[in-house]
């Protein structure tokens, strides 16, 4: 935590910008176009994330999108963790996910942040990453709905963080949970009306 509070304003701005622009790379769109798939923004939910990539382009495109969206968070967060510690890494992850959700290149219309959140967790706090991944897998196996699995896993991650992580990182994860819920409001409404499609 000492590294977090010793950051200068220039360091903070650089970390925020590097992280945001890493997150803003629209891998779902790039992967789908490289395979000749229709623009994800015009099909399915219109989202460029892994779930819609899977629905529109199939398993391979979905998995590749998930991998790249995870790694674009994992790599910068891991670097900042080694340089500055967990608090700064969590902060960097926050900006990566903001970049993913609101990319400047796509009029701030991006993904929902779950894959990039997993990248952040595995790089910064693997203990909560393992918990969240297991919960996601169990929930998805039962319901076959990505949104349900994601919301439950990220909610439990946030709660667990307040017990096993430092307060600053836990607060960052709580804020990210709120962002993820916000980006999933359409899914939540479809779930309420039993209209959310399964994978």
TrEMBL record:
Example of a GO cellular component annotation carried by this entry: plasma membrane
GO-annotated molecular function: acyl-phosphate glycerol-3-phosphate acyltransferase activity
Alphabetical GO biological process terms: phospholipid biosynthetic process
Keywords of the record: Cell membrane, Lipid biosynthesis, Lipid metabolism, Membrane, Phospholipid biosynthesis, Phospholipid metabolism, Transferase, Transmembrane, Transmembrane helix
Protein name: Glycerol-3-phosphate acyltransferase
Presence of keyword Metal-binding: no
Provenance organism: Midichloria mitochondrii (strain IricVA)
Phylogenetic lineage: Bacteria, Pseudomonadati, Pseudomonadota, Alphaproteobacteria, Rickettsiales
Pathway participation: Lipid metabolism; phospholipid metabolism
